[in-house]
Design goal:
4 helices, mainly alpha, 0% strand, single chain, 75 residues
Length: 75
């Protein structure tokens, strides 16, 4: 449910100045590479390099959060 909501927010509210920090914006790779998302967002910072950094940081944060929480092991 969160993935669907994030993707919807990333594409529907693309004009917000903080949309460049939404990792769901960068899942539309073709429009990121050819620059169409930066035109829609009216923000030159929505590009391939920013997307790679945002996805790396958000993925690393989620990975670390997954390591911090203990899971119950049922044997």
């Amino acid at each position: 449910m969160a993935v669907i909501a994030g993707y919807f927010a990333g594409n529907h509210y693309i004009e917000l100045t903080s949309s460049m920090y939404n990792p769901f914006v960068y899942f539309d790779t073709w429009n990121i590479v050819d620059g169409w998302k930066s035109i829609e967002a009216n923000n030159g910072k929505v590009n391939f390099l920013t997307g790679a950094v945002i996805l790396l940081i958000s993925g690393s944060l989620l990975f670390c959060m997954g390591l911090l929480f203990k899971r119950k092991v049922i044997s």
